Amino acid sequence: MDWNAVNPLRIVILDDHEVVLRGLVSCLSAEIDLRVVGSFTRVPDLLVELARGSTDLAVIDFSLGGDQMDGLNLIQVLQRKHPSLPLVMLSSHFDVATVDLAMRAGIRGYVGKTEGLAALVNAVRIVASGRLYFSPQIAEALPLGKTAARPEIPGPNSSLLTSMASLSPKEREVVRCALEGMSVKQIAEKFSRSNKTISAQKQSAYRKLGITTDNELFRIGALWGDI
């Protein structure tokens, strides 16, 4: 699709550094065919904007501070909720292993924060056109033939269905919120429970599901939808 001043590419940006965020907004807004429709420092605010369905592409920071989820979990949440939304990742972790993991999780472009703003503009346009973008030094080292394919996810099985059925109502609430990207602290505040109680319920749910990490939970969520 050809983006222009009348029909610009609608972009949302997530970066937990306010100064960096303002710079990114200023850079992309200066392009006549691009429009920043939302800029955020917190994941929940980003998710609210994306739920409105008026975004064509998201630019997200890989390393979010504080109690926010890490970059890989964020990608998985976005892929589960908005599977057709192209993602461009910004990161200071400029190494092949990190890019490989991010690409497997679903990103379409990867820009190092040391590359400069022109590289970001270029990446956004390339990814919006349906192609992949990686910086030259990463592209040379990245095994694109291997990583371009998504890892296979095993099909449904009765033991997993049984495990899901064994979750208590409160455990289901916690798991559902975790799949939406909420932290233990945020879930505790939502249900007026202590962090310790939420953490215990989450771990109990994990044991019943036969998993140990958030990544495994997102794989189940991507496969089964609502739990």
UniProtKB/TrEMBL annotation:
Residues 160-225 form the HTH luxR-type domain. Transmembrane segments: none annotated. Keywords: DNA-binding, Hydrolase, Phosphoprotein, Transcription, Transcription regulation. Pfam families: GerE, Response_reg. CDD domains: LuxR_C_like, REC_NarL-like. Residues 10-128 form the Response regulatory domain. GO terms for molecular function: DNA binding. GO terms for biological process: phosphorelay signal transduction system; regulation of DNA-templated transcription. The modification 4-aspartylphosphate is found at D61. The keyword Metal-binding does not apply. It comes from the Bacteria. This is LuxR family transcriptional regulator. It comes from Pandoraea iniqua.
